[in-house]
Amino acid sequence: MRIRVKICCISSHEEAEMAIAAGADALGFVAAMPSGPGPVEDGLIRAMAARVPPPLATFLLTSRMTGPEIADHLDVCGVSTVQVVDHVDPAEWAPIAARHPAVRRVQVIHVEGPEALDLIPRYAAHVHAFLLDSGKPGGTMRELGGTGRTHDWQVSRAFVAASPLPVFLAGGLTPANVGEAIATVRPFGVDLCSGVRTDGQLDAAKLSAFMAAVRAAEGAG
Predict the structure, then answer these.
(1) Nearest-CA neighbor of 185 among 153, 209, 142?
(2) Taking Cα atoms as reference points, which of 218, 205, 57 lies closest to residue 128?
(3) Is the pLDDT of residue 10 over 70?
(4) Which of 55, 117, 171, 175 stands the most exposed, by the fewest C-beta atoms within 10 Å?
């Protein structure tokens, strides 16, 4: 079982190069968000994505809520994958697919409880993958990722078992806990931001330790 690794919150060409050298399968670029670390302006996202060699994936994390707005965002950023970080109306995926048919589509599911599984049939026909995270999209203080918190991995395990699509696991992953997370949830891939950073900067030692832990978990699986 090979686990894909997505390193998120990439904020510079140097961080992108570090993640690629460490063996990442995908890089995540965070656009403007109501909460969480790591947002960068769209022009820099486009410049960074343009320098990422194939076959690595480049993810735009967008908090825009309508299909036309998200498609406009993709026009600007030039990435291979869009990750919608809020629970949008499923109908909003149609204009994105129509305007950007080659762009892979990922719906974030914020795991607040077992009801997360109810969202599988809501979105499965419209996207290529799910990403499970620890945010709280409802309420006045919306959290759409980057919380540094884990969630109930038993719910995530059940989600993976029920999903017809690949599932990435995010939320509070670190070199110390990613092995347990993989063994418990059995995701297609893992995604993290703060767990490989020191004072907000990508940390080569933590990144190396994380990748080693993922590869060890693959061997154990």
Answers:
(1) 153
(2) 57
(3) yes
(4) 55
What is the C-alpha to C-alpha distance for residues 37 and 194, in angstroms, rounded to an integer?
Answer: 8
pLDDT at 141 over 70: no
Q: Please, are residues 206 and 196 in contact by the beta-carbon 8 Å criterion?
A: yes
Band (151; pLDDT cuts 50, 70, 90): confident
DSSP 144-201: -S-------HHHHHHHHHH-SS-EEE-SS--TTTHHHHHHHH--SEEEESGGGEETTE
Is 2.30.110.10 the CATH number for 4-220? no
List, in order, residues 6 or more apart from 121 with CB less than 8 Å away. Answer: none
In a 10 Å sphere around its CB, with 0-12 CB exposed, 13-18 middle and 19+ buried, how is residue 43 labelled? exposed
Enter the pTM of the model: 0.92
Measured between alpha carbons, how far is 221 from 215 in angstroms, rounded to an integer?
10
Strands 26-30 and 57-62: parallel
Domain extent listing, the chain: 4-220
Angle at 104 between CA 134 and CA 32, to 5 degrees: 50
